[in-house]
Amino acid sequence: MSEALAPLPEGFEDRLRRIVPAARLDAVLARFATDPAVGFRVNPLRAEVPAVVDELTRAGLTLTPLPWYACGFTVPAAQRALLTAHPAAGDGRVYVQSVSSMVAALALGAAPGETVLDLAAAPGGKTTLLAAEMRDEGALSAVEPVRDRFFRLRATLARMGVTLAKTYAKDGADVGALVPERFDRVLLDAPCSSEARFDRRDAKSMAHWRVRKVHEAARKQARLIRSGFAALKPGGVMVYCTCAFAPEENEAVLHGLLDEHGDAVEVDALTLPVAHEPGLTAWEGDGFDARVSRAARILPDEVLDGFFLCRVRKLASVPAAPRGRRR
Fold first, then answer.
1. What value, to the nearest 5°, has the Cα angle with vertex 21 and ends 17 and 26?
2. What CATH architecture applies to the domain 36-96?
3. Are 107 and 85 in contact (CB under 8 A)?
4. Which of 68, 129, 170, 257: disulfide with 273, CB 3.0–4.6 Å?
5. SS3 for 185-253, per residue?
6. Quick one: which of 240, 196, 192 has its CA closest to 218?
7. Among 47, 34, 143, 139, which residue's Cα sits nearest to residue 86?
């Protein structure tokens, strides 16, 4: 007999019904009690893709290539333990990573020789993907304020053979004031309410959730996105993303940046290799800047996790917020 599933937090499903298109809602709700395929990528800083694919296949893993990313693959959910126990996952030749997370990091378009900032970097999955895209050439700064996560980040970078990265144990909200207009590209995978990671088979995964917590997360995210934007050079690009569904943490944060900086910021139209919905233009009576619709909400399915991302471009210099400023 299967175990009873825990209910979703009170009020969460009602909010979700107002965010997710009706035709997709049942599939999204079902994913809170099922596992997607396991995403992973071969690390080109440590190994050649064909050799690793051959080794994993001989070990009994069933690989499905991601058609839009030569280093990316999935295996069935039932093979997660087999994959994570394989020596290639332990020595840095393979990194197990959500497919949606790969999409977000690749959307930044980091290239060799650039200066790139990962503003909330631990545990290092996106950081190491950026390093791979940069071919370990250029300057990559990785920021993480939480002590144990900071050391986990450093261990991940070492295991994956990343040498261009420097790590900083700092509050990301202060970085823009410390190094204004320093970077060509900024990635901000902001700490969030983690709504896309709810699992009805594990009540603890949802126990923290309250609408109040969503608003607390949004205030922190607003400080971080301002900091990331301040750290961008004019002409630079920032990707902001979360694994939350909540518009307060997503569209509203983007709207706040647009409202504050006006014509100095633009939202790029995204061309993603996976299905997604446009950003909402209103939520609970508040309208958003029309450009917010250019953001993308990836809905969970048999391969993808729920994710929100947008790509903003800095068109002109703006004054950096004073260090420690809280709004």
1. 65
2. 2-Layer Sandwich (3.30)
3. no
4. 68
5. EEEEECCCCCHHHCCCCCHHHCCCCCHHHHHHHHHHHHHHHHHHHHHEEEEEEEEEEECCCCHHHCHHH
6. 192
7. 47
CA distances from 16 to 8, 13, 22, 25, 246 (A): 11, 5, 10, 8, 8
**Mode of pairing for the β-strands spanning 64-65 and 183-189:** unpaired
Whole-prediction pTM value?
0.95
Kindly state the percentage of the chain with pLDDT values over 70.
97
Q: Are the C-beta atoms of residues 71 and 41 closer than 8 Å to each other?
A: yes
Q: What is the mean pLDDT of residues 309-318?
A: 96
> What average pLDDT score do residues 27-41 get?
97
Element (H, E) at 33: none
Residue by residue, DSSP assigns 248-296 as GGTHHHHHHHHHHHGGGEEEPPP--SS--EEPPSEETTEE--GGGGGSE
Ordered by start, the domain boundaries in the chain are 12-34+98-314, 36-96
- 12-34+98-314 adopts what CATH topology? Rossmann fold (3.40.50)
Look up 243 and say whether it is catalytic: yes
pLDDT grade for 326, boundaries at 50, 70 and 90: very low
Catalytic residue among 71, 192, 243, 310: 243
Do residues 57 and 33 make contact, with C-beta atoms less than 8 angstroms apart?
Answer: no
267 - beta bridge partners?
A: 312
Topology alike, domains 12-34+98-314 and 36-96 = no
Task: Please list, in sequence order, all residues whose beta carbon lies within 8 angstroms of the beta carbon of residue 185, skipping any fewer than 6 positions away.
Answer: 108, 109, 110, 114, 115, 116, 117, 232, 236, 237, 238, 239
Give the DSSP H or E segment for 74: strand 72-75
Which amino acid belongs to residue 56?
L
Encoded tokens for 305:
């996790």
